[in-house]
Amino acid sequence: MKNTIELSNVTLVYLEEYERILQKMMHEMTCITITCSISDNFIKQMIPLHKATIEMSENVLRFTTNLDVQNLAICIIKEEKESIENLKALQNRCCFFHNSNYEVYEYMCSFKEIAEVMFYEMCSAPISNSVNVNFLCEMISHHQGAMRLALNVLRFCICQELIPILQCMIQTQCEQIELMLKLLEGLSDC
């Protein structure tokens, strides 16, 4: 994260916590033990991503007084907690759905490309003295990456129980991105 403006103490504390969350997420997503199940690998990679979303939302709630941002963060926390529960509930069943070595290799190559772009975008999100603007920019990059990861896994033979969760995740994240872009536009007009 690069900044060219002088940042307030509140913004610095917010960004320091964001950086900690981001580094933890990147480590946990990329240090899993790869198995012969794309479904299992995806679940193990997505849980840290969802946990980071919750922590990012909790971080902005410590500082924001913007009601729209507060409501969005609360909604994100609720939905991400439900998604983690759903993924964990399926993990023991989906891990038995095996793929060929070639499929796992193809999946992991795509995962790495998508994750690297998402990590880069999240690390280089624009910085302002508004924690609201920072949060929205960071979360847009996050949600776009999560959608690309979900679309990637849908290209492969996966546990059928996982498909409706992925479709719901894609739809929810797409709707939230639209809302965040509108909120960001409104904040930019201030």
TrEMBL record:
**Entry-linked Pfam families:** DUF305
**Origin, by domain of life?**
Bacteria
- Boundaries of each DUF305 domain copy? 37-90, 130-184
Q: Which residues form the signal peptide?
A: none
Could you identify this protein by its name? Answer: DUF305 domain-containing protein
**Which organism was this protein described from?**
Lysinibacillus contaminans
Give the organism's phylogenetic lineage: Bacteria, Bacillati, Bacillota, Bacilli, Bacillales
